[in-house]
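Re: the 217-residue chain
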Amino acid sequence: MPPHVWYASYGSNLSRHRFERYLHGGTPVGGRRPHRGATDRTPPRADRPFHLPYRLRFGGVSRTWGGGMAFIDTVAAGRTLARMYRITAAQFADVHAQENGGDARPADLAALEPGQRVRAADGNYPMIVCCGVVDRVPVVTFTAEHLPSAAAPAPPYLRTIAAGLAEAHRLAATGIVRYLRSARTVRAAYTASELSAVVRAGVASAIVPPPRHSSPS
């Protein structure tokens, strides 16, 4: 297993505040339940904006937010905005377990080639996907094995995603609205003005510039 990985987040973990609940524990702003935190609570060594070559989907029902959750459809080409956190492989395994109700199995991330997937859990996000290599460090994320039924994301979830997009990609509210409306479930559930109000609230809560890390990349 490599000592470090880039974890490419594309849903609520785009937000630094929200992602750190998986490391430090606690309840994210707007969320419904607390997280236990990771065994190793060291902050990420770095984070960067990233793009995943897959289509963004929303579906299922989130226990934390209500409404649909974000997934990438690995059989549909697209462009999903992401944020990479450089963390240890053990931290990634811990985050993956928490995303799946506390249960996940070790995976040999070093053996994965770009585009390959491996099943390592039984929850909402069982499939680990290798998305490439950056600075000789593998880029990994996770998604569903079979995408759940389409469902619109709840406003607190979208606010958190908007905050992360503003932090990582420096997008203004108009750009975030345009990006989120590319998802059919979002277009169907929110008018342009409704979505704009949700996104503006998220952008207002963003940490820009992002917090300094405790050690360089």
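The longest strand covers residues 69-88.
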